[in-house]
Write a structure and sequence with these properties.
Chain lengths: 387, 326
C-alpha cells in the first residue's frame, strides 16, 4: 500500500449508500477558529451522540512508476461506514484482519486523511479541521494502540512518555506540577509512581499497555479509541487491562470505541457492537442483539467459529464454515460484499448493495432481531456459541 | 435509533471462550510482577532523560574515556604541534634520507631526509581536519536530506533517491581527478568539500531507510495523535531512534576519508606540498617499504590509532543512546 497520504481528490466509489439508522447531525457552523475550539471544548451531555461518523471512505491509491507515480487502482479499506458513538458508552467494532477496523480508528484520530465522508465531533467535522481546532480535538480524542512494544518510544523514560502530552498542550498542566501529574497517572493505571525514570523495555507487556493508557488519559479526553488494546497481551493480562479500562471509564466518564477481533472481550466491554466486513459495516446493534439475535450471515458465521468449551453443547451445534477467502479490497465484489462467501446469495445480492437498516420483516416488531443489518435476506439463525 | 445503555458494571471476565474456568478477578494493580526487586536504587526524584542518562553512562565507560583522551590529544597537537615537536617538518637533509632512529629523531627520516616524528605530529592537523570535517559534513548533509526525504516521503523523496543514485554512479577517484585538478589552493577545504559532495549519498540512504522504519512505529503515530508538530516528532521520536546506524557508518567512514585524502594526495590532486599530512607521507613511504619500513609505520600507526579512537567513540555513544543495552 503506497503513499496513503496522497489521496485527496480521489472521489469515493459507492458513497451513495446513506444509512438511515443514525441520528441527525446537528452541525455547528462556526465562523472562526476560536468558535470551533469553544464548540469542541464544551462538555458533552451523557447519552448525547458525541462522535457521528457519516459515510466514511478511505481508499489507498495503488501506484506505479519510479519518479512519476500514476494511480492504477485503490485499496478500498473503508468504504462508506456510518455510526454514532454516545457519550459514556462503549462501541465495539469487530471483524477479521483486513476488514478496515484499524483504518477507521486512524481516520477518527485524523492520522489518515479521509477520502470522503465526515466525522462529527460535537457538531464539528474533524476531517476538515486544522490548526488550533484540530489540536483541541486531539486533546479530547485519544488512542490506545495495539502493540505495547512499538507504541512507546524506547528512548524515552516513562516520565517523558506520559509527560509528553503536557509538553504539547502546555495549558493542561503548569510546568511545575507535571511530574506530580505523571506520577498520579501512573498510580491511576496501577503502576508504581517510582517507575517514572524507567525505560519501556524494563516493563512487561501488560505494564507497557498501562503506560500507553496513562498517556491516553493524560489530557483528560472524552473519547478513547482503543485499537485492539489487548490482542498483543496474554489472556490473564488481558483481563487486568480490560478491568482497568472499565474502571477508568466509570471514573473519568469516558466513551470508548473498542476495536478487537476477540468476540468475547468485545461483548464483555461493549454496550453496542458493530460488525465489519471488507470495509463496510455488516451489522450493528446492542451486544444482546448482535450476539444472541444476529441476522447477518457473516455475524452468524463469525459467532459459530467461537470455540465452545462445553463438550455436550459442542456435539449438537452447527458450525458455519465459509468457503473461499476474503476478496481483495482493491477489487471488491459488486452488490453485497459478502455474497461471494454467503450461502444465501442470489442474483439480487450481486446487483443491489444492501443498506445497513432494520430489515423490513422486523421493522414493526419489537424483537431483538430488529436492528440494523446490511443483508437482503436477514433472518435470525440459532447459533450456539460461548460468548 | 438505538438507545445507549449505561456502562456495565461487571467485575471480572473470562477473556476467551476457551478459558471457561479461569478466575480472573485480579485486582488492577496485579501487573507489577518482578519490577520491585529492580536495581536496588531508591526512588530517584530527579527527572532523567535519554541524554542525561547517556552522559552518565559514558562517563563510566572506559572505552569512551580512552578514545576520548586520544581524540583530545589529537585535537591538541593538531592545534598546537609545536608543544611536542620542536623541529620544522619542512627542514630536510637529504644526506639523512631513509635513515632509522637516531638520538633526537626517534622515528627516523623520510626519503627526503625529513624528520618522521615532526612530520607525523604536524600531519595530524591536515589528516584530522579532513577526516573530522568530511565526516561531520557528510553526516549532517546526509542525515538532514535522507531524514527529511524519509520522513515526508512522496515526490521529494523520489527526486532525492534518484539524485542519490546519480552520485553513487560517480567513481570517487575519477571524480577527484576531474574536480580537484582544477583547484589550485593547497588548503584542505577543497578536499573536504569534494568528500562531502561524493560522500553524503551513502549516509543519506542509511538515514532515509532508518527513518522510514522508525516512522512506521506506533509511538510516532501516538505523538501525532497527541498533536505533536512535525519538528517534535522528528527531533524527539524519529531522530534518536534512527541515528544509531548513521553513527556507526560515519565513524567507519572517518578512516576511509583520511585514507582517501592519502589516495588523492598520491595522485597529486589532494593536499599539495608543502602541506604536511599522514596521507602524503604514507603514499611517499609506500615505495620504500622493504628498505625503510619505519617511514610508513609511524604515520600509518598514527592513522590507525586515530581511526580506532573515533570508531570506539562512535560505538560507545551508540550504546549509551540505547537504553536496552544498559
Amino acid at each position: 500500500m503506497a503513499e496513503p497520504s496522497k489521496t485527496e481528490g480521489n472521489p469515493a466509489g459507492p458513497a451513495e449508500v446513506v444509512t438511515p439508522n443514525v441520528t441527525e447531525v446537528a452541525e455547528i457552523d462556526v465562523a472562526t477558529e476560536s468558535a470551533a475550539v469553544a464548540a469542541i471544548e464544551a462538555p458533552a451531555e451523557r447519552g448525547e451522540p458525541i462522535l457521528q461518523v457519516r459515510n466514511l471512505v478511505k481508499h489507498f491509491p495503488l501506484t506505479q512508476g519510479i519518479l512519476f507515480k500514476r494511480q492504477v487502482g485503490a485499496v478500498k479499506a473503508v468504504d462508506g461506514v456510518s455510526f454514532d458513538l454516545y457519550q459514556g458508552e462503549t462501541l465495539g467494532i469487530v471483524g477479521e484482519s483486513g476488514c478496515g477496523k484499524s483504518t477507521v480508528a486512524r481516520l477518527l484520530m485524523t492520522l489518515e486523511k479521509a477520502t470522503a465522508g465526515e466525522v462529527f465531533y460535537k457538531g464539528q467535522d474533524i476531517t476538515r479541521l486544522s490548526g488550533r481546532a484540530l489540536k483541541a480535538v486531539r486533546r479530547n480524542i485519544q488512542m490506545v494502540f495495539q502493540d505495547p512494544y512499538t507504541s512507546l518510544n524506547p528512548r524515552m523514560t516513562v516520565g517523558d512518555i506520559i509527560g509528553e502530552p503536557f509538553d504539547i498542550h502546555p495549558e493542561v498542566a503548569p510546568k511545575g506540577d507535571r511530574r506530580g501529574k505523571v506520577q498520579d497517572l501512573l498510580d491511576v493505571v496501577g503502576l508504581n509512581p517510582e517507575y517514572i525514570n524507567r525505560y519501556p523495555h524494563q516493563f512487561s507487556g501488560g505494564q507497557r499497555q498501562r503506560i500507553g493508557i496513562a498517556r491516553g488519559l493524560a489530557l483528560n479526553p472524552e473519547v478513547i479509541i482503543c485499537d485492539e488494546p489487548v490482542s498483543a497481551l496474554d489472556v490473564s493480562v488481558q483481563a487486568q487491562v480490560i478491568n482497568l479500562m472499565e474502571k477508568l471509564q466509570d471514573e473519568f466518564n469516558l466513551s470508548y470505541i473498542f476495536i478487537a477481533h476477540d468476540l468475547s472481550i468485545v461483548r464483555h466491554i461493549s454496550d453496542r457492537v458493530g460488525v465489519m466486513y471488507l470495509g463496510k459495516m455488516a451489522e450493528i446493534g446492542t451486544d444482546t442483539q448482535i450476539y444472541d439475535h444476529p441476522t447477518h450471515p457473516y455475524t452468524q458465521a463469525l459467532l459459530s467459529a467461537v470455540p465452545v468449551p462445553d463438550p455436550e453443547a459442542r456435539t449438537g451445534r452447527e458450525r458455519i464454515i465459509l468457503s473461499g477467502d476474503v476478496p481483495s479490497p482493491a477489487n471488491p465484489p459488486s452488490g453485497c460484499r459478502f455474497r461471494t462467501r454467503c450461502w444465501k446469495a442470489e442474483d439480487k445480492c450481486a446487483k443491489e448493495v444492501p443498506l445497513l437498516a432494520i430489515p423490513e420483516r422486523f421493522v414493526s416488531s419489537t424483537t431483538p432481531a430488529a436492528h440494523e443489518s446490511a443483508c437482503h435476506f436477514a433472518e435470525e439463525k440459532n447459533v450456539v456459541h460461548a460468548v | 435509533m438505538p438507545e445507549p445503555e449505561p456502562p456495565k458494571d461487571e467485575g471480572a471476565i473470562a477473556p476467551t471462550g476457551t478459558g471457561g474456568t479461569m478466575d480472573l478477578a485480579t485486582s488492577d494493580g496485579a501487573g507489577l510482577e518482578g519490577l520491585d526487586q529492580g536495581d536496588g536504587k531508591g526512588p530517584d526524584e530527579k527527572a532523567r532523560s535519554l541524554w542525561s542518562d547517556a552522559w552518565r553512562d559514558l562517563r563510566r565507560n572506559p572505552v569512551f574515556i580512552i578514545s576520548g583522551l586520544i581524540i583530545l590529544f589529537l585535537v591538541f597537537i593538531a592545534i598546537w604541534p609545536q608543544a611536542i615537536a620542536s623541529g620544522n617538518p619542512l627542514s630536510c637533509n637529504l644526506s639523512k634520507a631513509q635513515q632509522g632512529s637516531q638520538p633526537g629523531h626517534p622515528f627516523g627520516f623520510t626519503a627526503q631526509g625529513c624528520d618522521v616524528y615532526t612530520r607525523t605530529v604536524y600531519g595530524a592537523r591536515a589528516s584530522v581536519t579532513v577526516g573530522v570535517c568530511a565526516t561531520l559534513g557528510v553526516a549532517i548533509v546526509g542525515t538532514v536530506l535522507g531524514g527529511l526525504a524519509g520522513f515526508f516521503g512522496g515526490f521529494s523523496d523520489s527526486i532525492l533517491s534518484r539524485v542519490t543514485d546519480i552520485f553513487f554512479g560517480i567513481p570517487v577517484v575519477l571524480g577527484g581527478l576531474v574536480l580537484l585538478s582544477v583547484v589550485t589552493s593547497s588548503s584542505v577545504w577543497p578536499v573536504v568539500g569534494f568528500m562531502v559532495l561524493l560522500g553524503w549519498p551513502q549516509i543519506s540512504r542509511i538515514a532515509r531507510g532508518s527513518v522510514i522504519t522508525i516512522k512506521q512505529n506506533d509511538f510516532v503515530q501516538a505523538a501525532r495523535a497527541l498533536g505533536a508538530s512535525n519538528s517534535r516528532m522528528m527531533l524527539r521520536h524519529v531522530l534518536p531512534n534512527a541515528v544509531a546506524p548513521v553513527i556507526v557508518v560515519a565513524t567507519i567512514a572517518l578512516g576511509t576519508y583520511i585514507a582517501l585524502e592519502a589516495t588523492l594526495s598520491y595522485l597529486g590532486v589532494g593536499l599539495k606540498p608543502p602541506s604536511v599530512s599522514w596521507g602524503i607521507d604514507i603514499s611517499d613511504a609506500s615505495k620504500f617499504i622493504r628498505n625503510a619500513p619505519h617511514m610508513l609505520l609511524w604515520p600509518a600507526g598514527a592513522l590507525a590509532i586515530t581511526v580506532l579512537a573515533f570508531i570506539m567513540l562512535g560505538d560507545a555513544v551508540r550504546d549509551a543512546l540505547d537504553p536496552k543495552l544498559r
